Amino acid sequence: PLVLGIESSCDETAVALVRGDGTIVAQAIASQEAEHAPYGGVVPEIAARAHAERLAPMIAKVMGEADVSLDDVDAIAATAGPGLIGGVMVGLVSAKALAMASDKPLLAVNHLEGHALSPRLADRDLAFPYLLLLVSGGHCQILAVEGVGQYRRLATTIDDALGEAFDKTAKILGLGYPGGPAVERLALEGDPRAVPLPRPLKGSAEPHFSFAGLKSAVLRAVQSGAYSPADIAASFQQAAVDCLIDRLTRALRETGPMPALVVAGGVAANKTVRAALETLAGEHAMRFSAPPLALCTDNAAMIAWAGLERIARDGDDFAGDPLDFVARPRWPLDPAAEAVRGAGA
Ligand code: ATP
Ligand code: MG
Ligand code: FE
Q: Where do the annotations place Fe cation binding (predicted)?
């Protein structure tokens, strides 16, 4: 099957055509970094307008490049949440219109499910179950992924997501937006042991993450004037990695042996994070899988892929979602998981 995917939940407008065998036939991605940079973060209204301007011509371009028409497409998948609701609505309504015009099924995709399954798009031998670290701008969770649609949340953040902590650290250091890649670059020139920073919840019996205290400690370190920005960036990154490893080790004690450790979401693009996770996987005799960098941050191929996973799972029983599917600003992957303080759906 061939699925058209649309992503518009944050500040990336993205369109992709993906085949059931994982071939990305064509794709386009437009970042809104320039529009949001003056504000130091994503402005929802600006994001929604930019998606509305760009999406239709991008769909036309991707279809044209692949030389396919809607007749050749088996379903139209769009992010239906969670995310900034104005942008989500632009993508979802566009997909509904295309589905209606072509009489093809609509797939309302959970953006987090797109991230969670993206490693299987890149690594076709990756089987269920796997232990997933989902680290992005809005989420920091550990999930046991048991199958398509079967996600058991083991941990979430009780305050900030890790991507958010990277972005705030970048802001404090005056590195601008988006922060993750800038902090990673600066950290290359710093000493990860130079600045004493906390590892919130490290060693704790409770399963969750916390990054607010780390962010405040970064602010105090900058204000003290005692450390170079590079040392602060490197020490922050190391503290964050130590927290990830500690919490994953705890989760593994809870699950027992798992065949694979998988990382997804924007922070998975970080090389220090990837290296530490790969080492941890090796120590536990687990396969390690991480998508290529372009599939870590927001993209439409992962949305089309999540749709294809559902088509493959359901076989002859496959049915699309109703055309009145409502965009969801919040949409947890594991609805049974208990709500915790702060963010973290
Ligand atoms: P969510 O998926 O939770 O809705 P989002 O879509 O905004 O949030 P992603 O696009 O998956 O998140 O990831 C963006 C986040 O990843 C940003 O916080 C960014 O700073 C972070 N990030 C990107 N590259 C890196 C990197 N190399 N190192 C650390 N963080 C990074
Ligand atoms: Mg983005
Ligand atoms: Fe995302």
A: 111, 115, 298
Which numbered atom of ligand 1 lies nearest the CA of 237? 29
Between the CA of 297 and the centroid of ligand 3 the distance, in Å, is 6
Q: Which amino acid is at 215?
A: K
**Assigned token pair, 202:** 């490290």
Cα 132 to Cα 114: distance, rounded to the nearest angstrom = 13
Give the distance (Å) from ligand 2 centre to CA of residue 297. 7
Ligand 1 in reach of 307 Cβ (< 6 A): no
Q: What pLDDT score was predicted for residue 1?
A: 97
Q: From residue 263, how far is each of 60, 148, 276, 342 by CA, in Å?
A: 32, 16, 11, 23
Name the pairing type of β-strands 260-264 and 287-289. parallel
Alpha helices in 173-270 (DSSP H): 179-187, 212-224, 229-255
How far, in Å, from the CA of 215 to the mean position of ligand 2?
20
Phi then psi for residue 262, to 5 deg, are: -130, 140
- How many residues in the chain? 345
CB-ligand 1 contact for 178 (6 Å cutoff): yes
**Does residue 87's CB lie within 6 angstroms of at least one atom of ligand 1?**
no
In this structure, what token pair is assigned to residue 70? 């809607």
ipTM of the complex: 0.98
Confidence check: pLDDT of 177 > 90: no
